[in-house]
Amino acid sequence: DFRLMNIESITDASGKPDARGVARKSLSQPIESRLGAAANTESQKVLRNVGPSVQYKLRDRNGQAREYNNYMVPVQLDGQSVFLAGMRESPNEPFRYLRIPADDQGSVTDWMRLRAALQDRATRAEAARRFALASMPGADKTELRTQLAESALHALNLFAGSTRPSPDS
Predict the structure, then answer these.
(1) Which conformational region is residue 104 in: left (phi greater than 0), alpha (psi within -120 to 50 degrees), or beta?
(2) Are 71 and 83 within 8 A, CB to CB?
(3) Under a CB-based contact definition with an 8 Å cutoff, are residues 62 and 89 in contact?
(4) In this predicted model, what pLDDT tens digit does every residue of 83-115 receive, in sequence order?
(5) Pick from 99, 123, 126, 133: CA 20 to 30 A from residue 152's CA?
(6) What Gene Ontology terms for biological process does this UniProt record contain (predicted)?
């Protein structure tokens, strides 16, 4: 389903830009600021055209569907230009949106390059090594620099989803 125009409310109850269109009240605010409904009909509406979108469903072997809603042009939220990519597992749920930062050209190229780098084990290891070297350039700090590189690599692996966090970390 292609929609050439989408008139949405992208402000919260106080009138500030917000992809969800709801006031920020819960402890889950940092997560919800990245994932959440694109609009809420209970709040005061400040409508504007947020551009074209594509909405589609993918079904698994059992016929269960996940529905996706992706906006094709960046939207200004919290002073940043972002693409909104939404997903919901049930028509009864609101879409949850991932905010993908737009680069200087208004595209997702930089984001996709970062994503590809995070998916490559060797690139993560090299990034961790370079970070440790830049953070501790002295030759007398070899052991500490090695520990920093290992810690940075662990953080990158967690962020990339290639390592599961341990219960004690």
Answers:
(1) alpha
(2) yes
(3) no
(4) 999 999 998 999 999 999 999 999 999 999 999
(5) 99
(6) cytochrome complex assembly
